[in-house]
Write a structure and sequence with these properties.
Blueprint: E1 2-7, E2 18-23, E3 35-41, E4 51-56, H1 58-69, E5 74-80, H2 87-107, H3 113-143, H4 155-170
Length: 172
């Protein structure tokens, strides 16, 4: 899977927005998933929280997003919602995404690798410092007697939630 995007309409010079989505083969099983549309500002000068719409079938999500950004300088991201029902499945999906990003990063390596390595080392040191601070804050919260977060819902509870959502979406 890869991301595809670009201007909608005649281009950015004419004040139209941009649409970004996955570039998938026509037989991809991902196309059958529910899709969401996230619309936000295209320009960094404009500050407001993006708005998320959906779920839709992929074709409907694309058509709606194209229409919304056709006449305004907005960014629309159209992406699938992966309805995993367990923490392990979600973690596997995250690991796959990270592995894919690492592969793509390795493929894109160029002569700036030395500079990137130095910057990465600086970033890692900063992240380690932040992680240590977070761990200390978490320990302090636990010592103060705050309750731990609730257990995740079971797969059956999640599926029941899907059914309730579907019923609300299809109610007249």
């Amino acid at each position: 899977m890869s991301w595809a995007g670009g201007g909608v309409g005649t281009g950015h010079d004419d004040g139209v927005g941009a649409l970004v989505t996955l570039d998938l083969p026509a037989d991809s099983p991902v196309l059958a998933l529910p899709w969401i549309v996230t619309i936000g500002p295209l320009s960094e000068d404009e500050e407001w929280d993006a708005v998320v719409f959906g779920p839709y079938e992929q074709a409907h999500a694309l058509a709606l997003a194209e229409e919304v950004v056709a006449d305004e300088e907005l960014m629309a991201v159209v992406e699938p919602v992966i309805p995993h029902v367990s923490v392990d499945a979600i973690r596997e999906e995250i690991a796959s995404a990270r592995a894919l990003a690492t592969e793509e990063e390795d493929d894109d390596a160029d002569s700036d690798a030395d500079e990137d390595d130095e910057a990465d080392e600086d970033d890692e040191a900063d992240e380690d410092d932040e992680a240590d601070e977070d761990d200390e804050a978490d320990e302090a919260e636990d010592e103060d007697g705050h309750e731990e977060h609730p257990a995740p819902p079971s797969p059956d509870e999640i599926r029941a939630g899907f059914a309730r959502i579907a019923a609300r979406l299809t109610a007249a």
